[in-house]
Amino acid sequence: MTVDGLGNVGTKLDKTSKVVQHKETNTTSSGVHKISAFGDNSGTKKSTQNSKSNVEKSSNSGIIEFEKGVTKDVKEIFNTEYENMRKKFGNISTISSVGILRDNDTKTYGTFYDNSGVLELKFANKKNFVSEHTKMAKEMNKSGGWSTAHYLHALRHEIGHAIQLEHKLNDPLWDNKIEQISAIMSSLPEYNNIEFKDDYSVSMYAMENLDEFISECIAKSMMKKSGEIVNKVIKIIKGVE
Fold first, then answer.
1. HSE-up of residue 152 (Cα within 13 Å, Cβ side)
2. 20 to 30 A from 28, CA-CA: which of 4, 67, 103, 209?
3. Of the candidates 37, 59, 58, 22, which has an alpha carbon nearest to the alpha carbon of residue 209?
4. Listed residue (28, 20, 29) closest to 176, CA to CA
5. 8 A C-beta contact, residue 113 and residue 91
6. Mean of the per-residue pLDDT values for the chain?
7. How far apart are the first and last CA of the chain?
8. Distance CA 192, CA 75 (A)
9. How far apart are CA 130 and CA 241, in angstroms?
10. pLDDT tens across 24-79, in order?
11. Do residues 100 and 171 lie in contact, with contact meaning Cβ atoms separated by under 8 Å?
12. Packed helices 174-187 and 210-221: angle between N→C axes, nearest 10 degrees
């Protein structure tokens, strides 16, 4: 799904790899991550998964696939941003395909499935993808729900979960990094504070659990100004002192 010319974009996961378990991270029982307007990851229902007969190989990578019906514009948007995030974070081999989110929850805009590597986006089959994602991102950022108001927020957030999975599979230092990031999250004034009324350090959604905190930081890091907390988290992920 990217234009990189290196021939190694979207390398498939080594099936012998095992996901490292971290007591600090919380996902739904089926390994599904979603971003919605309500900040509720409980009871997520799997939308229709992409079958082999219902996907198209990306003309760029030949490895990551697109579900039939994803528009040309959305493919190009994903290709560009996926490559931007690869340049920033390194290899992201954990996305197998990009599909159309058909969740009955109208406020859910993106999902990522750890087990299959499927990333789904709402309106990926519609011409109004950009306008709908822009509307939701602005609304959620204004209320403090999401960390950015950019129309790519849901896409970046879900790629953030794929980046986390990449590290869980392939980064021997991930346990230590998770501990450092968890310490940052738990030090925030809004952490486990139901009476918190001020502006959130990252976002309200970031307080759902550690996985969401990291993905919200990753999404915000793609903006020109991301803030001190986000910068600290990204440096830890990348192993930069």
1. 20
2. 67
3. 22
4. 20
5. no
6. 82
7. 31
8. 39
9. 36
10. 333 444 578 877 775 544 433 333 333 333 444 433 343 789 999 999 999 999 99
11. no
12. 90
